[in-house]
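Practice problem 4.
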């Protein structure tokens, strides 16, 4: 599925293509997508729609930053230290 992100007036963000919400607080939300991870920063963030069956998530609040990162395989601390 393709990913689609719609931001309306920096007060609402709708994400299509979300696998899960990893974390969500009033200041930051982390959403796992098909091809990576999206981090949303702001104030008073709250989930207003969560439909993972259709891969849709919607947040409201004041959105100040959206960052995308690639998926990385989880690597243990010891493995990283002793490369």
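Answer key:
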């Amino acid at each position: 599925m393709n990913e689609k992100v719609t931001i309306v007036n920096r007060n609402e963000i709708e994400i299509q293509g979300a696998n899960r919400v990893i974390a969500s607080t009033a200041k930051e939300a982390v959403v796992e997508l098909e091809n990576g991870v999206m981090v949303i920063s702001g104030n008073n963030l709250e989930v207003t729609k969560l439909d993972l069956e259709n891969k849709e998530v919607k947040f409201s609040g004041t959105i100040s930053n959206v960052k995308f990162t690639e998926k990385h395989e989880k690597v243990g601390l010891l493995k990283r230290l002793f490369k």
